[in-house]
Amino acid sequence: MKRVAVIIIGLILLQAGAVIGQEENRNIRGSKAALTVAADPEVAEIAELWIRAYLNNNTGKEVSLLPAGESGNADLRLFAASPADNEAMRNEWRVVIARDILVPVMSADNPFIEKVLSGGIDPAGLGMLLTSSDGMTWGRLLHNDNTVPVTVSIPADDAALTSLARFSGVEPGLVTARRLSSPGEITTLLRSNPETILFCRLASITGENGTRIAEGIKIIPIDVNSNGQSDYFEQYYGDYDSFNRGVYIGKYPKELCSSIFCAAATKPSAGAQADFVLWLLAGGQELIAEAGLTALPGGEGMIRRDMLAPEMTLAPAGDHRRAGAGGWMWIAGVIAAVSFIAFALYRITRSRAPESALIEHLSPVRSFSLETVAAPAGILFGKSHTWAFMEKNGTLTLGIDDFLQHVTGTISRINLKSPGEKVRKGDRLASVIQKGKQLDIISPVSGTILSRNEKLANDTGILRTSPYADGWIYDIEPENWLNDSRLMLTASKYTAQLREEFGRIRDFLASFTGANEVRLAHVVLQDGGELREGLLEEFGPEVWEEFQSRFLN
């Protein structure tokens, strides 16, 4: 009875402290906290738009816009900077909230479009386009005898000129391309002259909502390694979402991108600053296209909000320091009382329970090794961590191997192709997504998709719990199974490859600075060198992209 009474008293104290703490938080959050924002001239338009919309949606808030010259007195600073503009970067906390992206575009009716889209244009070719006046032809650009002239136009502002000249390696004064007076000219020019090439801002061809490339316009791929072909890592120009994600993870040339930053002296943890920044990364994204800029991909915005969200429960003292003192004393008292009760219960329990009973309740960090990765006989494994099984009717069932499930951890979504679509060996088969981070699964075979596993739309967990049965991805009619199967591995050879794969992944982790940080030390378990389940969950999209390149492509 005494023990029960002590527990009841402790719970009462805990409840009282929680109620008072919640009341204090309500008082603080309900207060009116003034916020000052300074914006550089190039982002003044979007800053005004953001502040006006924020105040309309958040009655009782106070936000004022200061001139750029007073940025030292502002709570937050908005500015644009490219990777080459280091002088704009101060020793301060900052987060990307939008982008200004320059892209070369052409008409879908251009007679040379297939050649251009398949090989792209390298930086030297872009330099020729920018500096050649009337003598530029499509034959000179595509290295053939065609004499059709190429006309080139670029935005009228100096910032765009500087970025284009820097990337293509030419002097800005040598650029002879025609200047566009307004974004509205783009569609008109491409319709009247399909042979033209335009450099413009991505937002100029994605409409008011900024989520879809205008019909009849194609972004010209940039052949960054100048090899005259579209490599796998360059194949992200087909649609708006793929392209915007490609920019985010660093595939697109950084010289042609400018990021819009929100900066502060220190990372906002709560109050008016944090509230405004979180809004910029959520509701504020819907307004970015109106200012001629590009919003963040959904996954990036979510990741950046998550970086701030865990600290939102910290309430600032502000003018309520005195009013909150009583609440904090209550909380301190409750903590002391609960600690005392927990210690007493621990002593009582330890004196009566055998040590083995305590050990049973420990939850060690889960790991995986060669012995725990399933590799059933009877199926063939692709080197891109896929598997295939030939059914009796001659069709193939495809899926993702167990190793990849252990590495990625929980998958939040999987993007699948539709029945009837053809896939080629080496092409993207599907994409697995985790909080905005993505891996593309590469097909080990060529064929036509007959059906797909619709269960995965509502339960991606079966990819992990049953990768070789319920977690299958497609049924495929193979095109050349005899040749494709020769390059796949039986279970025994696959197990041997996995042994090498475990060594490679340890080297991979060691190659990133983040893997050596204390906060990531548990990714590789030191006892026996085993790997932690879901180790990629600890890393950002740039590491996922590197993993894609080294282990899947």
Provide structural commentary:
The chain is of the alpha+beta class and 553 residues long. It has 4 domains: 1-32 and 317-362; 34-98 and 258-311, Periplasmic binding protein-like II (D-Maltodextrin-Binding Protein, domain 2, 3-Layer(aba) Sandwich); 101-256, D-Maltodextrin-Binding Protein, domain 2 (3-Layer(aba) Sandwich), CATH 3.40.190.10; 369-553, OB fold (Dihydrolipoamide Acetyltransferase, E2P), CATH 2.40.50. It is 36% helix and 18% strand. The protein has helices at residues 2-29, 44-57, 113-119, 123-131, 138-142, 158-168, 185-192, 240-248, 271-280, 298-308, 321-352, 355-359, 402-408, 462-465, 481-486, 491-510, 541-552, and strands at 34-39, 62-66, 76-81, 93-107, 152-155, 178-180, 197-201, 217-219, 257-264, 367-368, 380-382, 386-390, 396-400, 413-416, 422-423, 428-434, 437-442, 447-452, 474-478, 531-532. The strands form 4 sheets. Strands 1, 2, 3, 4, 5, 6, 7, 8 and 9 form a 9-stranded mixed beta sheet that branches. A 6-stranded antiparallel beta sheet has the order 11-12-13-19-18-15. A 3-stranded antiparallel beta sheet has the order 14-16-17. A hairpin with a 5-residue loop joins strand 12 (386-390) and strand 13. Helix 1 runs antiparallel to helix 11 (321-352). The longest helix is centred in the middle third of the chain and has 32 residues, at 321-352. The protein is globular. The termini are far apart. Residues 22-32, 310-324, 349-363 and 513-521 have low confidence and may be disordered.
